[in-house]
Every structure is written in C-alpha cells, then in structure tokens.
Description:
By secondary structure, this protein is an all-alpha fold.
Amino acid sequence: MQPPSNLPTPKKIIYLDYLRLFACLGVFACHLWVGGILPNASNVTKNLSNLADECLGIKGDSLYRCGFDSLFLFPSNSGDHLLFNFFNFVFGLGYQAVHLFFILSGFGLTLSALLVEKKTDRIRWFGFIKKRFIRLYPSYWLILAIYLLLNFFQYNSFLGLLKTYVKGAIFLDVIPATWYIPILLQLYLLFPFLFYFLKKLSIKNFLLLSLLVKTVSSAIIITTSLLAFDKILGFGYGGLAPGGIALTRLFEFCFGMAIAKHWFTHERSVDAFTVFQKPKAIILGIFLECLGIFLSLKYTAIRFIDHDIPVGLFISDAFIGIGIFIISLNLVFLVDGLLKSKSKAWLDLISNGTYEAYLVHSIVLSYFLTLLIKPSLQFLSSTASYLIVCLLYLIILLIFSSLTLSLGCWLFNLKSYLLQKWSLLFNS
Length: 428
C-alpha cells in the first residue's frame, strides 16, 4: 500500500504514531508471554518444566546462553507444538520493540531541533534538553509514587519507602522493566554533540561513525565484563544495554536521527518514507532482522582467555534495529491503508500516552499474574491442549493491552493537568 503523495506537511507524522503503538504492544506481548504465560504453563504441560529457567522463552540474555532452545521450546512433531513455538517466536521477540523506541526518540528529538533551528537560527540547548527531561521525569515520579503506595507494606518504615522514592526519582531504577529510560536520558545528554555531527557529515558517514562507536563500545564492555566478572554487566534479566551505557545502543538512536534528516531535507513530505517500502528495502530489512537474531545467539561466540566472547552481540542490535524498523513501517503502511477512511483521532490520543503506558505496564502485569493468569492456567487440566493456552493468551493480551493503554492515556492527561497547574501557580 503506497503512502499518500503530494500532501502538505502534517503537524504529526501518523506513521510514527502507529510505530509508538506497535512498540508498546510488542513490549506488552513479550512481557505477558515470557513473564506470565510460560512460567505458569507447567500446570498444563510437563514438557516446559524440563527446560532450564534461563532458557524458558526469549528474555534477557537467554538467546546468548541457550541458542535455539529459547526460540523453539518443543520439537515440531504436532500442530500444537508448531503453534506454541510460533507464539513463542513472534511474541517472545516483542522485546525488539524497544529498538523502535530508541529510533523514534532519535527521530523526534532531531526533528524538533531542525524545526527550532530553522525558525530561530539558534538552538538554546539547555532549554531544549530541559523540555525533553520534563517529558520523562514527571511521569516517572507520578507512577513511582503509585507503585510504592501499592507496595507500601513491603517496607519496614516510612523512611525506607521515602529513601526508595528519592533514589528512584533521580536514577529511574525502581519501576520494573524501565531499564531503557536511563539509557535514553544519557542519549539526550549526548544529543547536542550528535546533532553537530549529523549536520557536518553525510547521512552515510554519520551512520558509519555511530556504528563504529557502538561496536567498539560494546566490544570493550562485553569483553571486559566477561573476563573480569564472568558475566555481561547490565545485560541479563531484561537489561539489553551492556554495562548500562548508552553508547552500546547509540546506533539505533542515530538511525532515527538520520531518518529525521532525510525527511527534513525532502521538504518534510511523507513521500520520504517510501524509500523503506521498496522491495529491496523490505528484503534488506528481513535479512538484517534474521542476521541480528543469529548474531544474538551463542553460536557466534569465540574462545578467548578461557571465556566464550559473544562477538555477535557487539553489533547485533544495530542490524535488528534497522530490520525491525523497516518491517514495522511496512506493517504500518498496510494497516493505515486498511483504515484509510477511518478517523485517526484515537491514534493521536493513544500515541500521547504510550510512554506512561510503558511505565505502568509492569505494575498492571503483576496484578494480572496474580488475579487472572495463574488462576486460569491452574484451572486448565494437565491434558489441556496448547491451542487452549494460546487462545487464553490472546484473550488476556487483548484485555491487558486495552487496560494498560487506557491507563497510560489517563496518566498522561493527569500529568499534563498537574504540570499546567504547577506552571500557573509559579507564574502567578
């Protein structure tokens, strides 16, 4: 489906709204499958319980440690097994949606900077970055307060809870599954320097430079941490930025910056996105996605000083980032074509609340796990088919996604209201 041509520059690029929604749904699907269904599916089947916990689904560094065992949980000897493996592959790989978040962040920040520069000829970087921090921090503070109140009785004293809140409010490291936000803040601080190089270099050279920095940084951090600590620091248990350092995820952010420059230099026309819809681009996207997954596996490791060094991890994120963006964008073209005659007001509303929905989804998931997932799987008999488990998952995913996105939109509106009142109070 071809995107429309010769349209005036839109205030918002609807394709990016779709991608934000896709990214959120990908994370929801992955965490619900890996964190909710798989660990409790042993009530239905004994086969899953025979697998090591670290290989039960695609999470953290399980691809690196377990290889294809994480991708294909059962031998393909029945229709049920094939379906369950398909679900594990598709929904387990939903973690790759975080690549879209980095790319979209790079795009949005660069587009804002280019527009400001064109209007004023100068960017006041302190004020520019401050506005972006305000977009991230208040939402985290609000949801962190809710999270700690819900877990109030886990703390021995109010002082202990207060210390946790202050620490989490500064370092953004308390709410589960939000590891990527501190990485994003590091990239925000680097952005003025990255923007300088984006303007000075061609898009090709800019991407090559960012790829070099990302690869060298990843190589140093991964190799050093394995040799010194026998593990990749900051990589396991969902953390996909080795060492917690933003440079290891630099390329995806810079890829988004490059797309923004491409879009801006093409007179801010939606036609600029058609480059990703060409057959060669689609084939390239699928190839890079497959290559990135393979490089994430343990089979790309080499032996060095009595350690297996996963050299594929040095660069796998870069390939996955490009691949998942091209694939997702073409899905967006398809969905937008099917909904061409429909109003997109709902999309704008949901897009605004995707960040808040991401922050709160792990809290909602914990209640779903206790109140719905575990009881449902326990109710199923040991002879229940994998088809029933998969259907149950789809029903829960629909409910979970709808509720979380609605809550995210509500929290976004609440935050906006509180910030508005705060601004009026201090300006009066």
